[in-house]
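Hi L.,

You mentioned the student needs an example of a multi-chain input paired with its predicted structure. This one should do, with 238 residues in total across all chains.
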Amino acid sequence: MSQNTNKATIVVFSGDMDKIFAAFIIATGCAAAGMDTTLFFTFWGLNAIKTGEPIRAQSFLGKMMGLMNRGGIHRLNPSRFSFGGVGRILFNKMMSDKNVASLQELRQTAIDLDVHLLACKMSMDVLEITRDDLIPEVENVVGVATFVKEAAGSKIQLFI
Amino acid sequence: MDVKPDLVQDSIGQLCPMPIAFMARNMKKLEVGQVLEVRADDEGAHADVPAWCEQTGNEFLGEEPADGFFRYYVRKTG
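Structure written out for the whole complex:
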């Protein structure tokens, strides 16, 4: 097995806007430095790779969760000063005033630099998110063994 | 600085990580030995451009101030 090759592996657990910023900025930096970079999206992190269309949940609880947890990367709230959704608008304005790339632009930049996007199957099952609810750039739906294999051969492993 | 760039990248007004992301893309367009000039006004670029070169094995030739921004010169080595 290849140990410590030029790879970076990041688990994206959080669905907080600010933490997703960190994840995509680090991933972009790793990929730009020539590292083979993989992002594993699990639980709330899946919101960063959802299409944003209403999810097709079957159970009552799944539908309620889909409603509460609706929207894609446009709808993420910051981890502090969320103010029930107003914080997102304020943050976006502050960042665009300072010419920081938006989350959508950063995600596209990561995709253009061949960052691999993987989604956790178990959390998709729990939240009743299907492959069709995720953006087409997501390469695969995987489990923990895939993460372990990638992380074991990576110089950088992060959990965000 | 007495360097003739083969490609010029305008990153003026861009913040981290965009100058580095564009550098990675632009360096792919160059042949070994050719030089990329990056124009940037982000203060982080002073540290980040040489750091990127060290990480990727490309040669950092230096920087020089211009009118409200800096020019960074990088030679593709591998």
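You could point out the following to them. Chain A touches chain B through 15 residues (CB under 8 Å). Residues 14-159 of chain A form a domain with the Hypothetical Protein Ychn; Chain: A, fold (CATH 3.40.1260.10).

Best wishes,
N.
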